[in-house]
Amino acid sequence: MTRIHDIDTALTTLDVADPDVDPAGPRARADLQRILATTRPALPAPADRHRRSAAGGRRGPGRAAHGARRFALAGGVLATVAGGIVALPALTGGDQAFASWTQAPHGMTATQRADAVDGCRRTQEDAGEGTYADELRGAEVAVAERRGVWTTVVLAGSDGFSALCISDDSAHLFARDAIGSIGTPTGYAAPGPRELVATDLGTGSMDAGDLSMAVGSAGSAVAGVTYHSQIHGDVVATVSHGRFALWLPGDELEDASADNPVEVEVTYDDGSTGTSKLTL
């Protein structure tokens, strides 16, 4: 037993890698930039920019913004294409199959919230390659929630601009799984007091599996939004600062469209309820 322990100790001392990698440290950032410098997949043709399936079966949910960028981060590799998602396999662990996910969102400590928001801003700055730098600087935190180990952040700006990040915070930088979007919907019009306007709707894929989401703007009289899932039961959205966001494991919203809207229950600030049909 002692001999085996001594061998393990000796091997550990020979490992030049730092076991406590700081995701925001200079080494991690340098490694990420080196990865980003490698050859990327070709961008889709302009006519195909609104939505497309990405390589490897990974795809992004529909988004109301024409020409908006969507990103996926897996295994520490960040890839961007106009109107689609490209993700590479994660190197290690994380929350497989969304095992920790919860129907209702939970709050975060001040430190967790700050870390999630800062991480989303950094990722979006990289994904957008500076395209949305001004909008990101002026964007405020509209949604910051946790479902298990998964965090959702929505940054909101003027004229409907938004940046969305859903990420697995249980993994380190090079195993982190994330999906999101950034942009401004073409012809955006703010919702009426009792209305919802979806900006992200449908199904996306990441290393943990498929997920369905409904994210967008909420009118001033909207106090709550609930999606009645056939698989997961009632999925409660976060409604905050004029935005709403909910997501669930699986491809339940894959066929969302103008002909097949997603119906949600809406609770208003006077206590009354109604329904809203979400489309892009």
Read across the widest sheet, the strand sequence of neighbours is 3-2-7-6-5-4
Q: Please tell me what the overall shape is.
A: globular
Helicity, in percent? 10-25%
Total beta strands: 15
The N- and C-terminal alpha carbons lie at a distance of 63 Å
Helix-strand sequence:
HHEEEHHEEEEEEEEEEEE
Oligomer: single chain
Quickly give the structural class: alpha+beta
Number of helical segments?
4
Overall radius of gyration: 20 Å
> Mind describing the biggest β-sheet?
6 strands, antiparallel
Give the strand content. 35-45%
Q: Which stretches are low in confidence, meaning pLDDT under 50 for 5 or more residues running?
A: 1-17, 34-58, 65-93
Mean pLDDT equals 75
Describe this protein's structure.
The protein is α+β, with helices and mostly antiparallel strands. The protein has a domain at 100-278. Helix content is 18%, strand content 35%. It contains four helices and 15 strands. A six-stranded antiparallel beta sheet has the order 3-2-7-6-5-4. A hairpin with a 2-residue loop joins strand 8 (196-206) and strand 9. The N and C termini lie far apart (63 Å). The model is unreliable at 1-17, 34-58 and 65-93 (pLDDT under 50).
Features of this protein?
single chain, 280 residues, alpha+beta, 6-stranded antiparallel beta sheet, 5-stranded antiparallel beta sheet, 4 helices, 15 strands, 18% helix, 35% strand, disordered N terminus
